[in-house]
Amino acid sequence: MDITVPPEVGELAKQKEKYLHTAAVLDSGASGGSESSIAKTFAAEAVNRVVDRAVQVCGALGVSGDVLLSRYLREVRPFRIYDGPSEVHRWAIGRRAISQRRRAIESGEQPRWQREKETTS
What are residue 65's phi and psi, to 5 degrees? Predict the structure, then answer.
């Protein structure tokens, strides 16, 4: 019997890595604004996808009041709103990435992907 692992399980494992990376950045004394925004947004979206998929699997029973899943559906929606909506975090992440790239160009620094490419070649 072939058992396929749902992609949501992998998403949650990636989220744990993101949180550990964010914690390491904050522990090092750096601001970690981008990392925490990325971790918050990714976690909120992942938990919503997992619960939504579970509701879809259960069909109409998934949203009835008789099943605990309907409570989860109500409880995970605010994760996308707490500490600012996910859309606001995406805008902040984009602004930070653009400003970091702009500073790198002004200082004549190579992009990180080019430096990594040269070291692996």
Answer: -70, -10
Q: Is the separation of the CB atoms in 55 and 62 below 8 Å?
A: yes
Domains and CATH numbers, the chain: 7-120 (1.20.140.10)
How far is Cα 85 from Cα 78, in angstroms, rounded to an integer? 9
| Euclidean distance between CA atoms 2 and 10, whole angstroms | 18
pLDDT in tens, 64-121: 777 788 888 888 888 777 777 778 888 888 888 888 888 888 888 776 666 666 666 5
DSSP-derived secondary structure for the chain: ---PPPHHHHHHHHHHHHHHHHHHHHHTT---HHHHHHHHHHHHHHHHHHHHHHHHHHGGGGGSTTSHHHHHHHHHGGGGTTTS-HHHHHHHHHHHHHHHHHHHHHTTPPPHHHHHHHHH-
CA gap 93, 99 in Å, rounded: 10
